[in-house]
Amino acid sequence: MSAPTLTPVEPAPRTTLRRWSPVAVGVLVWWSLYHLNLPFWNWVMFDTVGLTAGSRLGDSIHFFFYDITKIALLLTGVIYLVTILRSFMSVERTRALLGGRRQGLGNVAAAGLGVVTPFCSCSAVPVFIGFVAAGVPLGVTLSFLIASPMINEVAIVLLFGLFGWKITALYIGFGLLIATVAGIVLGKLNLERWVEPFVFETKLRGKVVDPSLGLSWDDRLQMAREEVVAILRKVWPYLLVGIGIGAAIHGWAPQDWFARHATGWWGVPLAVVIGVPLYSNAAGVLPLVEALHDKGLPMGTVLAFMMSVVALSMPEMVLLRRVLKPKLIATYVGVVASGILLTGFLFNAVL
């Protein structure tokens, strides 16, 4: 008598429905909240509370609540998705696939990805955290973090409309160069030791696990939920402080003083020093860039100012502090600021 043949047991339809229904509802709720975020806070702040749109106070308070909600939603969605993807592959295996001789190509790809993701510097941080947690080499993720706020379709369209295709092409080329080269340089410094250890840990029900050992879908979904809660608990104070700083300085820049004092060779470093503490996206800073250029400031100076505002900001550094140690943040700022300085001087020399 032959032994009975064992066949895989298919999950019952009711079990499958019970597993995936909450996920589908969660995706729908997340998508709705993300797209209703801006009109909701417009209604609350300007129509209900009565703040004046366009005023320093009104825009700052609106910015705080809108950006807090947006970045919390991005953290939730990105960390959930990346944790599920990470559950199929260990951190070490991901590093092996994307590191080594492929790292330069990875930097170029990450910078290119940044071009098609219209994030400001703080909004790019959740994606950066997800990439690092998934084991993507640190230098590659930093290329994305630099390129995403600096070069995106919003910046490209507005630059083209204000200054023409030559300036736009030069800006895109140098922005990609800064993101790629800075990422390669930072990657070769082997700075992973300055990343907080919890970022690399994969936990399930409070215990560190190896994803490569094989997990059920219930385990993967549970792991993703736990990871979202754990990271939000760790970063929320930094999120509040970082966005609070951004709201306080939102829309502020010493325009007239800057236009008077940034006319010599020192204009480029002065532009970077003033730009780094500020916080805005490309759409927000470009009208100021146009005004400064109309006042006679050289193109390299105003573009260095724009790059420093959108690629490096104090709120971004505060958010990054929860996952990166101060030495890595300082190194990152130094390398990127050096690239921006060089770009500003070159633009002034050739334009």
Automatic annotation (TrEMBL):
Q: Does the keyword Transmembrane apply?
A: yes
Tell me where it resides.
Answer: Cell membrane
Keywords linked to the UniProt accession: Cell membrane, Membrane, Transmembrane, Transmembrane helix
Keyword Membrane present in the record's keywords: the answer is yes
> Topology with regard to the membrane?
Multi-pass membrane protein
InterPro entries, per database record: DUF318, UPF0718_permease
Q: Which residues cross the membrane?
A: 23-43, 63-85, 170-189, 235-253, 265-289, 301-320, 332-350
Q: Which GO terms describe its cellular component?
A: plasma membrane
Q: Mainly localized where?
A: membrane
Family note: Belongs to the UPF0718 family.
Name under which the protein is recorded? Unannotated protein
State the species of origin.
Answer: freshwater metagenome
